[in-house]
Amino acid sequence: MKTASILRKPFELIPGTSICPIKKATMTENYSSFKTFNDKETAQDFAEILKEYGIDFYIEEDVLEFDPTYANNELDKDFHIMVKQEEFGKAKQAYETYFKKGLDNAPPDYYLFSFSDNELKEIMAKPDEWGTFDYLLAEKILQDRGIGITETEKQTLKTERNKVLMEQQKEKPSNILLYYIFCLIVFPIGILIGWAWAYSKKTLPDGEKVAAYDSDTQRHGKIIFALALAIFAFIVVWKVLDLTT
To answer: What is the domain range of residue 65?
Structure first.
């Protein structure tokens, strides 16, 4: 989200203090990350829009709990607005309806007005990298310049973007070999990397969850994860036996 901090000044979302629920990262099955922010206040403000439209949500705080340096460092935390997967379309419509009301109030010095036609088209092609307001304003500016984008063209852009986002990451053979070695020497790294490769998922703009890594990388991830766990179990058993003898 490239406009979260900018929107708070010229387009104040919700007056007063937000009281949206904040939860630690969980494994809630039917919810997916709808929008992500790196500060709590902005996430709460944006979540209030969903509350106005009666959309069920909660805010999830995503932080590496085993790292004590995260405790008081808000910049290292992500705050996800979690929405039910089947309500992603409704949530997007709510944001579009809300922000369309403010398009005519955008200040003349708002940075998108200085963008070239190609730069604005780039926003239209990659809406997941921009805020809803910027996406809608980019479309309006193009229309005002006589470069309208039809619904068919927008659907084509969406389809092409989804193809890119669905692409799974493939680790290099050298990296795979390296982490096999790390697994044997420093098993905690093997546990973390193995789990990430085997089970990580990413959320597409429509709420669908897909594997982050290709099948070959997933297979190696499962092996590395299992090896690292086996080494960990062996060390624990060995230590226990050593203490009892």
So the answer is: 1-86
